[in-house]
Amino acid sequence: YVERRFKIKGEIVSKVCVICEHPLRKEIERVIDSKKESQTWKGVLKKLEKKFDLEVKAPQVLMAHKRHVK
Fold first, then answer.
1. Residue 2: CB partners within 8 Å, gap ≥ 6?
2. Count of alpha carbons within 13 Å of 34, Cβ hemisphere only?
3. Which of 3, 22, 30, 56 is the residue whose CA sits 20 to 30 A from 40?
4. Model's pTM, two decimal places?
5. Who contacts 19 (Cβ-Cβ below 8 Å, separation ≥6)?
6. Closest CA to 56 of 24, 23, 17
């Protein structure tokens, strides 16, 4: 739809969850679950990049992961 409507090439988005596919998935999930409701996702994103070399650009990726593993 995007390509037709706006005449631009869209990126192909992977259907594979980067967290589910990561060899340290359980540790990553513990970091995600450690976020308190009053905190933003920014700290979690930074921790994932620093500790696991996992660069997640948007917190929606983490929230989507939490939804589909329940």
1. 8, 10
2. 12
3. 22
4. 0.74
5. 25, 28, 29, 32, 54, 61, 62, 65
6. 17
